[in-house]
Task: structure prediction
Amino acid sequence: MDALSGLLHGFQVALQPANLFWCFVGCLLGTIVGILPGLGPAATIAMLLPLTYKMDPAGGIIMMAGIYYGAKYGGSTTSILLNIPGESSSVVTCLDGYQMARKGRAGAALGIAAIASFVAGTVGVVGLTLIAPPVAAFALSFSSPENFALMCLGLALVVLLSGQSLIKGMLSMLLGLWLSSIGTDLFTAQARFIFGQAALLGHIDVMVIAIGVFAIAEVLSSIEAGDDAKVLPVPRGLRNLLPNMAELKACRFAFLNGSVTGFLLGCLPGAGATIASFISYGIEKAVSKHPEQFGQGAPEGVAAPEGANNADTGGALVPLLTLGIPGGSSTAIMLSALVLWGVKPGPLMMLESPDVFWGLVCSMYLGNVMLLILNLPLVPLFAQILRLSAYILFPCILGISIVGAYGGSMFNLGLVVAFGLLGYLMVKLKYPAAPLILGFVLGDNMERALRQSLMMSQGDLTTFVHRPISAIMLGLAVLILLTPLLGHLNRLRVRAITESG
Amino acid sequence: MNRRHLLAGAASALAAGALRPAFAEFKPTRPIEFVVHGGPGSGNDVFARALTTIIDQEKLSPVRIQVINKPGGGSTTAAAYVVSKKGDPHVFACFTNVWLVDPLVQEAATNKLVDMSPIARLVVEPALVVVRMDSPFHTLADFINAAKEKPGALKMSGGSITSRENLVRQLLMKATGVRWAFISFPSGGERIAALLGGHVDMMIVDPSEAGEQVRAGKLRVIAQVNDRRLPGFPDVPTIKEAGYDIPNVPQMRGIVGAPGMSAETIAYYEDMFLKASKTAAWQRFLTESQLDGEFVKAAELKAFLAKFEAELREILKEAGAKVVR
Result:
């Protein structure tokens, strides 16, 4: 079945009233789950699994997917308003989103996040519709050495995330890398840096660190700065609550960048939306004409990561639907759900169960429209939260943070407080927090890819340059790392010219 | 309180005492916590939720069974939680091999499965040895002979070194004297992608994960890791039939209660799961997930676990894992 007749068939399935209803239920649940920090789409889908046994497979998968991509829409809300990342893939959104909110552009930031999510979410589905099989083949050619090179490229972004001092950025990143090595080592089954705490045998949850160093640290430093009586500016009037033309225009490239980066990284098993959001943010800053505005409330800094984490869902469904390979936890549950419903997810699914495949793909076009309609009216409503005065807002932020970090473990509560204090110290000493999260997110993956590559090549390091994709990405990483040096040399040259002239 | 009350009380106490053997049967009185060591959506979680749904639908339990996730450190967090509920008749967990392996290799994992209250083993999961369709290997012997020619050059993908696939590899390498590399990937998706992409040469995988790839002609099964041939693969020899006499390493799932569970309580739950395992819904779930239902009762299970733990200790030592207990 080619894409056109597939789409025709798919819309017939997706537009059935029952399936439209399930799509809406999924999108609504997803938005709610996305807004609540700590409750992720994977957990929600798993909890709903027993309720879906009797459902029609097409309706069931349409609803589950709705939760999955709907959560990416909601994830930005608390990141922007309260500096609490709603999902791990919305951590980067805090950097510029929260700064926009502080400048009275909370509504604009939320609106941009919703629009970026819609554009990229739709582009992701278009990709899934048109180029799924070749992209899946490309994803299979991508192995550990390429993965390692990709992670190196990601780490090189530290240069762009560091702010004033590169040294401080690097130190912060190193701390993140070290934190990512805590826990059981996959290769040897040995525990590392657990200090006798069995609770550390699993890895630390990125949400615990992010909530600590962003939300709690922000509350602590605001209290210290005596901001407690001050209310954040929220402009009156609907027009001022939505993004203006200048802001949307600034985001043109970010929409595209987020869409492409998110979709491609989503296809790779093991990369994931969090990494995609960081990388698209880095690309955005690297090509920007005014990189100094990033971290100070640049609208592109919201659009790129929010786009990337939505396009990622389209990408992640490529290996799931064309090869039967799940890339992450949410898609793994969808895979087991398909099996329970008697659908056989695998290379033959597109042919044998066109209802499920094309029904799902088409429902995602509809779902993205539903989510945009659902989320835009919520923007002015959510922006009003910032009218609350600090003595109400701060305890609320702390409460949400603690609930978000809990995840069934008292140990996490101790950890989130510790990371809050660490974040506060970092603010005081002007260490940027973003590189720490970057190091943490990439570190585990990077170490694993390096060791896998060396095991595959029997210890031969040249494997990284013999493989073309990996060589190109490593070259790019070196180039990015050298940019500050080049800038420095350029300044010296200019000074030499002016002095001699 | 007057004398009559006292007498009546004493009489009823006596009666209760006398009748105890007949009415000793335990019945749960509050919701049961069903502990799962993986996060929502992990294999174990899906298994436990399917089981709970069937017990619910068939009304086999008078109280609600609530699945609770205690992920972290393999089985360690869940095991610690179960042990902290010592003596509580309303807590049981779904165990797998990891519950035996973790305390053997982790200093910090102090709670052993055999010290809790094993209730029943429900299933054993077979596995398949698979290669890519365009691979030159058509039998397990082909692979092993090739590995003999180029020691260490062939590769297989799998999970941690304590996973079943690595234990089978260790046993095969010991029996044949050849070596090949084992490359760890955290998720099943990455393992199978590495094989499909041609980055590794072989993998040992659950039939549920590889079945569709085999049907689509992407992967070929060259042997099965099980005591007998699976109905879905009647023409593929087991490892033993292929000529390699190694002990089978069963991958199992079962139910274990909090430590100190009384014999009556264990018998009650054992009966509940036995009934559940005989339902048509459960049989359908097993077929769809390609699992072997092999119910083992509590008494037999305890002895089996102790023996299996001793065997695992030896295999792990040979696999190069640091065995701490």
